[in-house]
Amino acid sequence: MQGWYAALGIVVTVAGAGPAGAAERLYACGDDEIREYRLSGGGVAGEVWRWRAADAVDLPESYRKTLLAKIDDCKAVDGGRSILVTASTGGVVLIDRASGRVSFRATAPMAHSADLLPGGLIAVALSIHQHGDRLELYDRNRSETPLLHLPLPSGHGAVWDARRRRLFVLSHDLIQAYRIAGTGAAPKLLEASRWMLPGRRDGHDLSRRPDGRYLVTTDDGVWTFDPEGKHSGGGMFAALPALNPKLRVKAVGMAGDGMNGRLAWVQAEESWWAKGFTIARADGSDPVRVPVTGLHLYKVRWIE
């Protein structure tokens, strides 16, 4: 069988990959844009939707021109109904996918990743900046109003784990797990566990796998992280053979289950950005390059 992938009108044959499922969609982001790609079998798949900060009439000029100039994450939340966006140029926004309208915004220097938490909370990881290097917490109904912040050197990842009831965050050297405490009006984040990163460390990306484990990228590779492992203080890191060792992987994600699943990743080609992303089987076989034109591509995220 053959699967077919296309980007911006370019059709690419995937030898032996099989048809892509109807749910196989992902966001690609960079500069001030988010693009949605749909992968389908038996035909072509490509870009189906686009959002640009410069065109968002419901945003202040500072966001349209500066704060969202370099988007570095674009995560599907609310069951795919919304997109949570961070930008290294200092902006965080929550976008309604159907209308493109912005329902939340915040100024957060070097924001690199965010996720929704129970109770309408938003956690944001801020990276290296004189006002960054921290984890911030917001109420999605109160723009521009941080509720608390905690130290997070070179913050690069924030993922809420509903099954474990923990917020996992990624910094330069560590993955930390936090539990929510306090009250709705005055929430707190209390550290429950921490794990030292493997290899040369310098954590860059954190995403959840369909099996409940995680993928994490460091300076020198990509690893599977199992919080229930029996290694190194309770957590287990194992090199992901498909992408380890591999330098400057800016994003990696897994969709589907087992051999029917897919990996998608971005590896920097020009300084910090790339000209396309790669899709492969879960074991890294049958890789397909999807070109992305007119964009300094930084991240890809599967839409669950």
Provide structural commentary.
The chain is an all-beta fold and 304 residues long. Helices cover 2% and strands 51% of the residues. It is built from 1 helix and 26 strands. The chain has a 4-stranded antiparallel beta sheet, with no helix packed on it. It has a 4-stranded antiparallel beta sheet with strand order 6-7-8-9, with no helix packed on it. A 4-stranded antiparallel beta sheet has the order 10-11-12-13, with no helix packed on it. Strand 15 (166-170) and strand 16 (174-182) form a beta hairpin. The chain is globular, with a radius of gyration of 18 Å. The two termini are 25 Å apart. 43% of the residues are buried. Mean pLDDT is 88; it is low at 1-22.
Helix content: under 10%
Strand order of the largest sheet: 5-4-3-26
Number of strands: 26
> How does the major sheet shape up?
4 strands, antiparallel
Radius of gyration: 18 Å
What's the layout of helices and strands?
Elements: E1 2-7, E2 10-15, E3 25-30, E4 33-38, E5 47-52, H1 61-67, E6 71-77, E7 82-87, E8 91-96, E9 102-107, E10 111-117, E11 121-126, E12 134-139, E13 148-151, E14 157-161, E15 166-170, E16 174-182, E17 187-196, E18 205-208, E19 214-218, E20 221-226, E21 236-239, E22 249-255, E23 262-267, E24 276-281, E25 288-291, E26 297-302
Antiparallel strand pairs: 1-2, 3-4, 3-26, 4-5, 6-7, 7-8, 8-9, 10-11, 11-12, 12-13, 14-15, 15-16, 16-17, 18-19, 19-20, 20-21, 22-23, 23-24, 24-25
